[in-house]
Amino acid sequence: MARRRRNKGRTISGILLLDKPIGMTSNAALQRVKRLFNASKAGHTGNLDPMASGLLPICLGEATKVSGFLLDSDKHYTGTAKLGQRTDSGDADGEVVETRPVGDYSTSRIREVFAQFSGEISQIPPMHSAIKVDGQPLYKLAHQGIEIERKPRQVEIFSLELLAQREDELDIDVHCSKGTYIRTLVQDIGEQLGCGAHLNALRRTGTGPFTLENSITLTALETLAEEGFAALDARLLPMEQALADWPQVKLTEDSTHYLRQGQAVLVPKAPTRGWVCLFADDDRFLGVGQILGDGRVAPRRLINLT
Fold it and tell me: Is residue 5 part of a domain?
């Protein structure tokens, strides 16, 4: 009896800007999008906690080859710090472990504290995080009541602004480097103020070159899916938009041929160092490359054009 072939899904490539809802894991959102598109391959570009909402770029097909670069990109967030309470997780999903009185902080005092977290700072990752130690995610240890020592990590806060202030809450806007934990930032701000704090709400508004402006909610995407794949596919962005701020290198037909064979090529007027976006002479996106010490352009991740 012949075995039935499994449906591996459609070969579709592009980037969907999803506005992830509160209460859903990033992986659950990814799997829902993958099923709606019936895509053969999909990946997201940076985990958002279930309590957080906002921008979650999802890469389909060949776009997964650039997902790692989005993972490494800067992020923008808005959030709310709840003053006077510390939780075991650093956010509203955790149990309150300490309560302290909240002072009558002036705006200038708060901005003075914010200034201490400008530029490169050191953060100790929270136990409730996906960081792995000996192959075990920290959050799994935390759920067992186990706490282990974590090494500090260097991150960068490009801007930290106060949007609004209430008696025991601060609305903030943060532009930061990859790997920054906003709940750790909020906890540390609370300690500097002397009252303690936890993250009460979080929304990601930007990732690399992408913003919420062109995103779509899961509910709207499910409604769109009723119109068929053509309607869904129209929401996909070209994968090269993830690298919009990278230098571009256009190759001749011959150079394209050799590059696709894995060979480094010499391109007149190419950048002298760093990563570059590669395009064929007909403007097709070929993938990403890196400038070698001798000035040649080496292929690093090429897109399958077939």
Answer: no
Residue 113 falls inside a structural domain: yes
Tens of pLDDT, residue by residue over 88-138, are 889 998 899 999 999 999 999 999 999 999 999 998 766 555 566 656 655
Number of domains in the chain: 3
Parent domain of 128:
75-204
Structure tokens at 32: 């829902």
Q: Is 254 a catalytic residue?
A: no
| CATH number of the CATH domain containing 99 | 3.30.2350.10
What pLDDT score does 251 carry? 92
In a domain, 7, yes or no: no
**Residue that terminates a domain, selected from 239, 257, 288:** 239
Q: In this predicted structure, what is the pLDDT of residue 27?
A: 93
Q: Does one domain contain both 111 and 175?
A: yes
Question: Contact 213/16 with Cβ under 8 angstroms?
Answer: no
Please state the three-class secondary structure of the chain as a single string: CCCCCCCCCECCCEEEEEEECCCCCHHHHHHHHHHHHCECCEEECCCCCCCEEEEEEEEEHHHHHHHHHHHCCCEEEEEEEEECEEECCCECCCCEEEECCCCCCCHHHHHHHHHCCCEEEEECCCCCCCCEECCEEHHHHHHCCCCCCCCCEEEEEEEEEEEEECCCEEEEEEEECCCCCHHHHHHHHHHHHCCCEEEEEEEEEEECCEEHHHCEEHHHHHHHHCCCHHHHHCCCECHHHHHCCCCEEECCHHHHHHHHCCCCECCCCCCCCCEEEEECCCCCEEEEEEECCCCCEEEEEECCCC
Which residue in the list 19, 49, 88, 91 is annotated as catalytic?
Answer: 49
Model confidence over 134-188: pLDDT tens digits? 566 555 555 655 566 667 789 999 999 999 999 999 999 999 999 899 999 999 9
